[in-house]
Amino acid sequence: MTTSAEVHFVRSQFSEPSPPPMRTSGIVHWLRENLFSSVLNSVVTLLIVFGLYKIIPGLVDTLIINAVWVANDSKACVADVVGHPVGVCWGFVAAHWDYFVFGQYPETMRWRPELFFALEVIGLAWLLVQRIPRKDLGMIYFFIVFPIVSYCLLSGSETLGLPIVQTHYWGGFLVSIVIGTVGIVISVPLGIILALGRRSHMPVARSSSVVVIEFIRGVPLITVLFMANVMFPLFVPEGWRPDSLLRVLVGVALFFSAYMAETVRGGLQAIPRGQYEAAQALGLGYWQMMIKIILPQALKIVIPGIVNNFIGLLKDTTLVAIVNIFDFLKVIEASLNDPVWRTSGMPFAGYLFAAIVYFILCYGMARYSMSVERRLATDNRH
Amino acid sequence: MKKIIAAAVVAAASFGLVTAASAGTLDNVKAKGQVVCGANPGTAGFGVPDQKGNWTGLDVDYCRAIAAAIFNDPTKVKFVPLSSKDRFTALASGEVDVLIRNSTWTMSRETTLGVIWAGVNFFDGQGFMVNKKLNVKSAKELAGATICVQQGTTTELNLADFFRSNKMEYKVVTLGTSEEALKAFDTGRCDAYTTDRSGLAADRLSMSKPDDNVILPEIISKEPLGPLVRQGDDQWLNLVKWVHFALLTAEEDGITSKNVDEKLKSDDPEIKRVLGTEGKFGESLGLSNAWVVQIIKGVGNYEEIFERNVGPNTPIQLARASNALWSKGGLQYAPPIR
Question: Own/partner pairs for B327-331, CB < 8 Å, 24+ apart?
């Protein structure tokens, strides 16, 4: 008698897994799925490839191969003079590099703005790079120590033995970064205070916050700048007037604080009432509740809005050119009028350089904010 | 905007805020240790940053001349670049001590804005640029032509006047900015382009083929450009005026930055008066008697300033023409220093 067990066949080894069908993996699959999934898609893909084929060689030619990298004056960038087609005149940017970065800051003291840039990078890295510890010290450094040190460094201080450099010598990238940094360093705390004030139950705090926010938001930035630099001097006697760059800095900082306040208020309103009540039930006072419970949650929600404000701020620094502060874009524009460099192709080189620099800064901020959002996206997912 | 600013200027002036600031500009300047000079934010040849960012130009050198006269140091200037909109407000409010920024001297500006011109450092006027292919030798031959011009400027009005008084037809293409107008001319939308001649020379450089274009000899308007100050401070007005005259007088007497030390030993009574080895002309301005020596050592005479910034050897290539001395057929004339 045989048992059923004897006729069983038990395989002792796994069989080799068969490869997936060609169509569901690999580059061919990806292409079919993404670029040629329908007739319309295929046509669009082909058109785009054709377009790129037409554009890219010309672009490479203009930007790199035919571009002039070293030039002493405009003649090196004129096709008729050098005898071959000329692309972008990067030589113009190279020759003006120091002027574009520092403006007229005295040459022997350029180490001061250089050190300022380095300190700023350290502060930003401390706050932004996750792995560096002691963010609390980082905050103190960036919002208190760094501004004071930068002021002494850039403007000068007799007691420290640094000669005074008046702000009309400042210019270029330096001024853009100073305005952007001051705007950020002041608008974040001031914006939070204004937002809290607007939601406060105390009538004076609430109404004064509302007035400040609505008044500043109700006018364009250009008006604020004109007010600061053209009208303000008319109303105060000579000797009572702060420096023109300082007036602009105050105007820009106040303007963006109002916007920041509204962004932060959006976050505060998104926090459920239960959070406030729970904090109060624990016996926390107003500031403890705000600092430990509410603001950390609210600010996390509004990171995209805050970064959006930063990007807007950085680009709006170019508006100060209207009141004759020589920011990064304005120094490029002014250099284009120099008869030694004046030719038809030069504005393209200058403005392209400005566009690249602004794009790198703004895109960098946008990417960073995305990574922060991903890192903090721990809850509230529904 | 202009009206609001003008109204604010008048209002501020009537409250005495502005006039309080303008009393004793020279003393203020000496106390500050620098001349605050309203300057051009970027016009080739008149006020433009060079490769290193140093301001250069004819107007800029006038600011330096004033600083040299006061401080014996042409670098003691703070340049405040001003757009054409806010230049007069800045002067009236005391933001700047003197405005040297291609500003045309007109009656209405002097009678309504509370400013006063100290002289004419450049006689400009509106001209035409045409393509050489047209084979036009004179603006009178432009009948029926299409002309590119910037919108809303006196340039546009002068153009209409010129063609009407010469009984010629023309078509006009008006554009928002001078860059757009120039671009339109460069791309062949117009037969001719018109603006001030000093501007034409610089604009020609930024065309795709500068040498294919010529500037016609006619000047169809008067644009006297010069330094101006606030009304009500005659001492300061005198100083700016006589710095200008000193530059012209030095050219007339052949005093240059190179030979000024030799000329100090000269026996010529005129040169002795100018250079302050005789008389007390500097002191009467509130300066030292060597004020002209300081100016000439600092920036050179009018001819040197002109040649360095806009003359035939610069890319701008302007001839002296009306800016030659009166003795050489031009309009530049200085009253005697005596």
Answer: B327/B252, B330/B123, B331/B120, B331/B123
